[in-house]
Design goal:
The complex is a heterodimer of chains A (about 500) and B (about 210).
Chain A: H1 5-12, E1 15-17, H2 24-33, E2 40-44, E3 53-59, E4 62-68, E5 74-78, E6 93-95, E7 98-100, E8 107-109, E9 114-116, H3 120-124, E10 142-146, E11 149-153, H4 161-165, H5 168-176, E12 183-193, H6 197-206, H7 211-214, H8 216-220, H9 229-232, E13 236-240, E14 243-249, H10 255-261, H11 266-275, H12 278-285, E15 289-296, E16 300-305, E17 318-328, E18 331-341, H13 346-359, H14 365-380, E19 390-392, E20 418-421, H15 426-440, H16 456-464
Antiparallel strand pairs in A: 1-19, 2-11, 3-4, 3-6, 4-5, 7-8, 8-9, 10-11, 12-18, 13-14, 13-20, 14-15, 15-16, 16-17, 17-18
Helix pairs in contact in A: 1-15, 2-15, 6-15, 10-12
Chain B: H1 4-12, H2 16-19, H3 41-58, H4 62-67, E1 69-80, E2 91-100, H5 102-112, E3 125-137, E4 143-155, E5 163-175, E6 184-193
Parallel strand pairs in B: 1-6
Antiparallel strand pairs in B: 1-2, 3-4, 4-5, 5-6
Classes of the chains: A alpha+beta (about 500), B alpha+beta (about 210).
Amino acid sequence: MTDQSAVLADVRRGMIPAHIYNDQEIFTLEKERIFSRAWVFVAHESEIARAGDYVVRRVLDDSFIVTRDEAGEIRAHFNMCLHRGMQVCRAEMGNASHFRCPYHGWSYRNDGRIVGLPFHQDAYGGEAGFKRKGQRLLPAPNLDSHNGMIFISLDPDALPLRDFLGDFAFYLDYYTKQSPSGIEMRGPQRWRVKANWKIGAENFAGDMYHTPQTHTSVVEIGLFREPKAEKRKDGCTYWAGNGGGTTYKLPDGDLEERLSYVGYPQEMIERMKTSWSAEQCRVIGQDGFMISAASVFPNLSFVHNWPRVADSDDVLPFISVRQWQPISENETEILSWFAVDAEAPEEFKALSYKAYLMCFGSTGMFEQDDVENWVSLTNTAAGSMARRLRLNSRMGILADDTEVIPALTAEQFAGPGSAHVGYSEYNQRELLARWADHLERPVTAAAALHVGTTGVGEDRRAIATRNGADASDDPPALEHVPSEDAAEVTGA
Amino acid sequence: MSSSRENREQVTTQTHSSRSVLGAHASRIQRLGSTLPFGDERHLAAHQWLVDEAYLLDAQAYEAWLDLLTEDIHYLMPVRVTTALGAGFDTSPGMAHFDEDKYSLSRRVARFLTEHAWTEDPPSRLRHHLSNVRTFATPDEEHLIVESATMLFRNRGDVRESSFISAGREDLLRRGPMPDGSGWQLARRTIMVDESVMRMQNLAIFL
């Protein structure tokens, strides 16, 4: 493996070696040192609302069944039969009390416990040869959720999710807690693009500078009234904890007037006022900043915009959650969900969905032009000339690192973290600084799990002791209550 | 098109459009009986309409294409999902790639006509390959249902890998719009794409 320390040093001073956007060795390191320990979003609880509901999601090459078991606990099972390693679930979503491997018929309850092992006595001599008792599909080493957003980490010693998010949780509420019921998520649309995964994450984190150029056409057709150049730079970018994003500066008004300006009906505004803290309300109502795009390290992004959805001057806000799932150094699968406050009126939900489809996702008119740029960039980054180029990602700071525009003060911006008005690349640098920190730090090999042998107990406890919990056979799960035997229902 | 007959149909029939989030306004007329013979003039008219439409889509002559759509058009492309046999559904609930009315389609077309729709500058080379055309009568002779298969080939730039979309379509054609009652317009289209995960950088195209 090539020594990457010079690459990381360049990145840390905001000079980006262009080849990191299409480099097989870098990608191998990213797999090993970022995605094997960072918290990675897999699903929202509303996608698996009922007992037995499941979706199958991946963390790079690893497939997980994210399911709500019969007792209501949310679990993430590694989608690999303990016998010969076959995928036990080959659908993307559904409802099942059990998963049966099609190869030799081993079957598992949706809480992961093995329930069927054909010819256990004849083939293995029963428990003496293969310890069936206590066997379960391998759980994700760490599982946690925040505002219904379910994340997993392949690192059993990962920081608690809330600590990982840090002060970004303040901003996450604008997208995912507009009422006590939180959001419901629909989708995702999934499509693969020949672009490196970091580009989308960087763009959503802080690139206000691209809006007036890349998205000229959507202003010209009257879809969007905001992103004219002089408007976008009046907004600010912020970075807090492990995420950051962009905002628009709204016209004068108080909290209600500004939420109404972007299209929220009064009843939703009332719920936001009670769901958000005084500081969260102040960022909009007093400071005048409305959240737009954002990214959480490493590959989760959000967007909030307010286009026209009919031939009138009214605008309708929408929220999208998206993941930049790395496939290779030059290919990314985009998973793009529509999200909406669960308590919103049905008519609002329908029009917000229309706004989403027109702007983002596989057919979205903003997104169409973004991806064209990112594919082109990735393609160019593969060559030898790109290895000579250090892209300047220092927008917003001078040669001596002083700020072109000073950071907003606590009086000007009530949110946590650091915020700056104007065009800058603070957030892209923050994101890539975390990227460099991960790439620099080797990972320790995970403990092996020996299936059905006497050695299994020790390894199992090692997995279960995450978060300092008592050693037990219980794998990571949410809403933990003592589980009872699942009812025998037919399932996939 | 609000004959009492159609109103009765609307009470009892379900279509992909009526089950979609934004398709409540769409006509619910459905097919009647088996495939029309290939020599039937209604089939010949429907087939020719599809071939002529494919030409416009290949040429990206989108203003002319928009004229082929009725004012109450519902243009739907569900997101397909892989589900277990017997699950009872294979599209993503409440989500689609396209769930469009005339206004949203007109904005998409208007965008392509600006000089700043970068994703199509330089333009893609497109070919909509059309086959498996089957035409059905409906309870109303002003309407026909036409099924077809389409394979879109899209190539961008000089050496980029080409991409494909394979899909089946069900269309509702309505007689008009010429003053003498000739010609046909598209009143409803459902596009059932054959992939769950699209292998195309965006859907800056129509099917």
